[in-house]
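Take a specimen:
=====
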Amino acid sequence: MTATRTSQRSVFRHVAQLPSSAWPTYDSTPLYDRSSLGAVKEDIRIIASVWFEHDAHDSVEDSVCELPLAYFDFTPHDCYSSPTRYEMEQLFRVFILKEIHGWKHETALVKYLNHHADLCEQLGFEIIPDQSTLWRSWNKRFTVELRETVEIAARTILIKAHHADVTVPRELERHLPRRDDDADGSTPDNQAILHKTEPITEHTSRIVFPAFSLNRGDGCEIHENAYWSLQTYLGLRENLAANEGARSFVHESTRERTPLGHAHRAHIRDLSIPEIREMYRQAIRQLIDEVAETEEFFRAGIVAIDITEADPFTGDRTGHEEEIIGTKEKNDEYAYQWATVQLVGNAVPLVLDAHPVRKGESRLEIVEDLLDSAEELVHVDNVLMDREFDSQHVLEMISRRGLLYVVPKRMQTSEKAQAKRLLQRDQDRYETDRKLHLGKNEWHETTLIYRRKENSEHDDHRQYSVFMTNGASGHLTEYGYRWEIESCYRSIKRFMAATTSKNFGLRFFYFAFACLLYSIWRAVDLLVQVELTGEYEHSPIVTADNTLTLLKKETGIG
């Protein structure tokens, strides 16, 4: 079907309803202006994401002809100074078509145009350019950066069309390493990794950070990016608080003006927790959209839900008893607690959402909230949780969503007795069905799996662990993935700024921003691995420190 005015309006109306952070805002942010190639790539990605979802849009060529380029200033990317017959916008579109079809030479493009008069009319060609004109335009008139943008735009359109089951002219090719990056075919060296990491980190930061806003109004002398620069800078140094960090930041930043520590904290304290969470979710959505451009990332997977604690709070918590709550251990300590939902397993371990835990919140409320967020971003298959989430109402809610779960069960009298019988029989594994009472004569059906621990230090029933699942027993092997979240938490806490403030919103923002830095690191690592090797291995090749150092550079330091 051919795109119509009505179908086009439908697409652009949908785009206009997206949050403003989801698309470039020209002339209102230093991230982009009317000649920014980064903005073009972003717009093409966003339009293509929506375009092919419309029933009337089943042609990649139509999508190229309808790309909104009228706003864009090609002048800085045009190496010709004298007037020419063909506009840069026309040539930009026609070279995207060449890339989409995978033609190596302009001759094939010219031949195709000569046989498709309607396409030439859409492109605005009264006279079709010949082979030599197209060759000179590509090799002499277009800058290197503009040629790279054409290649990225074509690949983006192919991927989005393929995901929407639209017929594409050619199969996508994997990005394999160049000879100069990996000459002997071995693992890429540090220099090659850093060479690829810098531009990818720059691109990623330009996508993610616009999702955050301090809502300070117009006319502020210190640009908002300076605040995110400072927050990233604080994440680079362990136990660095805002005041001390702001003083050091003045000397390391290339900005003329940077925020003071107290001003930085004041602006963050003005953010409500719902605002922080919405900004975080939008940033992660942007990050997922970016990594979804690769064939190695799938919008589906296993998620782990857990709660982590800040360092024990030793001050006076009067007036903050609802927020500085007890620890998970049975002791007299208090701490702030944060819940997260994270991709685990073979997926890129992104933190999909974070939830501040308050006194009195049920585990059911927390899990339901985090799963709502996760299922908006990815297709969730399985849910892994710790034994503190073994409530029958939590399990029933997960089952009603059509999801599988694996959760260890706290051993009560009946489980201890069964474990003792298994020990007497020297039996390593045992399965049994169990009904858990939900109230009002309602029950949740689950399967209990007893598994003997290897090399246990105990000689009684504690040799066994008991798990609950609503799936096959084979899913129990996936539970090992849950421990990845502990490694994640260690990295996140390493990225957090230090503070003694009791302000709940400030504390949560520091944690959420650290989760974002962690997720950016893992996303950058995936993109670098795919660029260098064409594959993704779960163990990162890009270090967290390298990513943060490059992030601070791109947000205004160094």
Notes: Confidence is low (pLDDT under 50) at residues 174-186. The first helix runs from residue 5 to 16. The chain has 19 helices and ten strands.
